[in-house]
C-alpha cells in the first residue's frame, strides 16, 4: 500500500511555559493512497490545527510531514506554491467562493493561478459539474446558489487539478442535513470511483460514517482509532460505533439516514 501522507511526531505549541498550549503534542499517522480518513475530536482538540499544518497555513513546532516522501515544511518558493496549488485541494466549511465570479470561473480559478491552459481543464470541469450535479449553476454567481450548490462548486474547484490529497475542513458544517448527506455521498463516490485520497476534519458523526478510517484526537494526541469493517459493516453500524467514541470525547451529532 502506497503512503501518500506521513505525519511523524507532529507538534504545535503556542506560548511559553508555564502557560504553554500544546495544540498538537506528538501525533503520528499515515494516509494510504485512495483512503478516506476522518479526523474527529471535540472543540479545541487540535484537529483543525493539524489540517492547517498539513495545508502549510500553520507552521508546526516540531515533527515531520511528508507528501509522497517530500518533507512539506521544508518547501519554499515555487515548490511551496506548487504544493499548495497542485498537490493538495482544500474544501472549506464556508465555501470560500469569490462572489464576483460565476460557478465556472470559481472552479477554473486554480488553473489560472497555476497558469494551466484553460482548454486543459474544460473536460475535467464538465466531468465534475455533471457528477456533482452543478451544471445548472455554472453561469450563476454564489449569491444565486443554495448552500449545497456552493459547497459542491467548491468541491469541484478543489478537485479540478487532480490533487494528490484533498483536505476537507468541516465540509458539512454550513449545510442542512439533506445537503450534508448529498455532499458526503458525492465525496464518497469520488473516493471509490476515482480513488481520490481524502483527509477530512469533522465533528459530525454522520459525515464521518462515510470514511473508511477515523482518528480521534483529544488534547493534541491521538486518543483512539476506528476502522470500518468493509464490506460487512453497514454505514449505520459504523455510525453507532463512532457515536460511542465521541460520547467519551464529549461530542457527537444527530444524523438522519
Distance between the termini: 32 Å
Mean pLDDT comes to: 90
Number of strands: 10
Number of domains: 1
Number of helices: 8
CATH topology: Rossmann fold
What's the level 1 CATH class? Alpha Beta
- The poorly predicted ranges are none
Question: How would a textbook summarize the main sheet?
Answer: 6 strands, mixed
Reading the helices and strands in chain order gives: EEEHEEHEHHHEHEHEEH
Defining traits:
single chain; 257 residues; alpha/beta; Rossmann fold; 6-stranded mixed sheet; 4-stranded antiparallel sheet
Q: Secondary structure elements and their pairing?
A:
Layout: E1 3-14, E2 21-32, E3 36-40, H1 47-54, E4 62-67, E5 70-71, H2 77-87, E6 88-91, H3 103-113, H4 118-131, H5 147-159, E7 165-169, H6 177-193, E8 198-201, H7 205-208, E9 213-218, E10 221-227, H8 235-249
Parallel strand pairs: 3-8, 3-9, 6-7, 7-8
Antiparallel strand pairs: 1-2, 1-4, 4-5, 9-10
Helix pairs in contact: 3-4, 3-5, 5-6
Characterization of the model:
This protein is of the alpha/beta class and 257 residues long. The protein has a single domain, classed as 3-Layer(aba) Sandwich (Rossmann fold). Helix content is 36%, strand content 25%. The chain has helices at residues 47-54, 77-87, 103-113, 118-131, 147-159, 177-193, 205-208, 235-249, and strands at residues 3-14, 21-32, 36-40, 62-67, 70-71, 88-91, 165-169, 198-201, 213-218, 221-227. The strands form two sheets. Strands 6-7-8-3-9-10 form a six-stranded mixed sheet, with helices on both faces. A four-stranded antiparallel sheet has the order 2-1-4-5, with helices on one face. Strand 9 (213-218) and strand 10 (221-227) form a beta hairpin. Helix 3 packs parallel to helix 5 (147-159). The longest helix is centred in the last third of the chain and has 17 residues, at 177-193. The mean pLDDT is 90.
Amino acid at each position: 500500500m502506497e503512503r501518500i501522507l506521513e505525519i511523524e511526531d507532529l507538534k504545535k505549541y503556542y506560548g511559553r511555559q508555564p502557560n504553554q498550549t500544546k495544540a498538537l503534542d506528538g501525533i503520528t499517522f499515515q494516509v494510504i493512497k485512495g483512503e478516506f480518513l476522518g479526523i474527529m475530536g471535540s472543540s479545541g482538540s487540535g484537529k483543525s490545527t493539524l489540517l492547517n499544518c498539513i495545508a502549510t497555513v500553520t507552521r508546526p513546532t516540531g515533527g515531520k510531514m511528508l507528501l509522497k516522501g517530500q518533507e512539506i515544511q521544508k518547501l519554499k518558493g515555487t515548490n511551496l506554491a506548487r504544493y499548495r496549488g497542485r498537490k493538495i485541494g482544500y474544501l472549506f466549511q464556508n465555501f470560500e467562493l469569490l462572489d464576483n465570479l460565476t460557478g465556472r470561473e470559481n472552479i477554473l480559478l486554480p488553473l489560472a493561478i497555476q497558469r494551466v491552459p484553460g482548454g486543459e481543464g474544460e473536460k475535467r470541469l464538465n466531468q465534475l459539474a455533471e457528477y456533482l450535479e452543478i451544471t445548472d449553476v455554472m453561469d450563476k454567481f454564489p449569491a444565486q446558489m443554495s448552500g449545497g450548490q456552493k459547497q459542491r462548486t467548491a468541491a469541484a474547484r478543489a478537485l479540478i487539478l487532480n490533487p494528490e490529497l484533498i483536505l476537507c475542513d468541516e465540509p458539512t458544517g454550513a449545510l442542512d442535513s439533506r445537503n450534508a448527506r448529498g455532499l458526503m455521498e458525492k465525496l464518497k463516490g469520488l473516493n471509490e470511483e476515482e480513488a481520490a485520497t481524502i483527509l477530512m476534519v469533522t465533528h459530525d458523526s454522520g459525515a464521518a460514517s462515510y470514511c473508511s478510517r477515523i482518528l480521534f484526537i483529544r488534547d493534541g494526541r491521538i486518543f483512539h482509532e476506528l476502522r470500518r469493517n468493509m464490506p460487512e459493516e453497514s454505514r449505520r453500524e459504523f455510525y453507532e460505533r463512532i457515536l460511542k467514541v465521541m460520547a467519551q470525547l464529549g461530542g457527537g451529532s444527530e444524523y438522519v439516514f
